[in-house]
Design goal:
By secondary structure, the protein is α/β, with parallel strands linked by helices. It has two domains: 103 residues, 3-Layer(aba) Sandwich (Oxidized Rhodanese, domain 1), CATH 3.40.250.10; 189 residues, 3-Layer(aba) Sandwich (Rossmann fold). Helices cover 47% and strands 15% of the residues. A five-stranded parallel sheet has the order 8-9-7-12-13. It is globular, with a radius of gyration of 25 Å. The protein starts with a strand and ends with a helix. The N terminus is likely disordered.
Length: 304
């Protein structure tokens, strides 16, 4: 039996990776002791904090709460009963986090919907375009990393478990029969790996190549990263003497990123090449392109 300690999490898919629409009360073990000693220790620890604890939850009392521990045993069950007695809508995560994790891993092995994969050089606007489309998976958004050397700037990269749980949740909201848009990535996004089944679906997806002018790419990179404030830019200019950020980005794109990207993309066969200068127009064209794919599926189905 275990004494209790509390750890309130507000559905941010932190290290445990439990769905974001739940407000979670995670009851973790403090130390292994006998049953009676555990009850006493739990009361000594928790009773003085009970009023403060309930007040801290008052703002979310009307929401559905889920309490979990490692295996869904007495630790979480006791907190569920306590909250129910005080009028909360609360249930216990059956099987605990261990069971939830097994569920996530099993779901990741399921068939992935057909994918339309957006490729393009760094700064072409793949993520910006993706967010204008219906039915998409933003892998970089789920990972909280831009999948580049400095991709964690202004981000809070997630763990592998968080990333996988978020991906499962996202896939469950998408239509299984319609093609889903996704940005082309390597097997890793920052420090997390794309699950094998999803990576395989990306490799076998319909590939679209986006193109924009070099100046547009530079502008979008500077705007997205917001590398530093004006004072810092002035300091960089002093350090680098010529130090315009645009010039630095231009050099990195032309001399570093583009050659590596072109080498990596040389093995791909793109079905469509599309200008992304106007993101709204590009989004409209991609939606029309997806409709053509869907109509093609239907014709093939009828002919069978």
């Amino acid at each position: 039996m275990y004494a209790l300690r509390r750890n309130l999490r507000k559905a941010v898919f932190q290290e445990q990776g439990v769905p974001r629409y739940l407000i979670i009360w995670n009851v973790q073990k403090l130390e292994q002791v006998g049953r009676d000693a555990a009850v006493v220790k739990g009361l000594v620890f928790f009773e003085p904090r009970l009023v403060q604890f309930l007040l801290s939850l008052s703002a979310i009392k009307s929401q559905q709460l889920v309490v979990y521990c490692a295996r869904g045993g007495m630790r979480s069950a006791s907190v569920v009963r306590l909250l129910q007695e005080h009028g909360f809508l609360v249930s216990q995560l059956e099987g605990g986090y261990k069971c939830f994790r097994q569920f996530v891993l099993k779901q990741l092995q399921n068939t992935v919907p057909p994918l339309i994969v957006l490729h393009g050089k760094t700064g072409v606007g793949k993520t910006l375009l993706l967010q204008k489309l219906p039915d998409y998976v933003d892998l970089e958004g789920l990972a909280q990393h831009r999948s580049s050397l400095f991709g964690a700037i202004h981000k809070s990269p997630r763990t592998q478990k968080d990333f996988e749980a978020l991906l499962v949740q996202k896939l469950k909201t998408l239509p299984s029969a319609l093609p889903v848009f996704v940005e082309g990535e390597s097997r890793k996004v920052g420090q997390v790996f794309i699950p094998a089944a999803f990576a395989k679906a990306m490799r076998g997806g319909t590939l679209v190549l986006l193109k924009v002018a070099l100046e547009t790419r530079i502008s979008r990179i500077v705007e997205e990263y917001q590398i530093c404030d004006e004072q810092s830019i002035q300091q960089m200019r002093l350090w680098l003497k010529h130090g315009e950020i645009e010039n630095i980005v231009h050099m990195l794109l032309v001399d570093y990123y583009d050659p590596r990207y072109l080498n990596a993309m040389s093995r791909y066969k793109f079905v469509l090449e599309l200008s992304a200068e106007d993101l709204n127009q590009a989004a409209a064209e991609l939606i029309g392109f997806r409709n053509e794919i869907v109509n093609s599926y239907r014709k093939q189905s009828i002919s069978k």
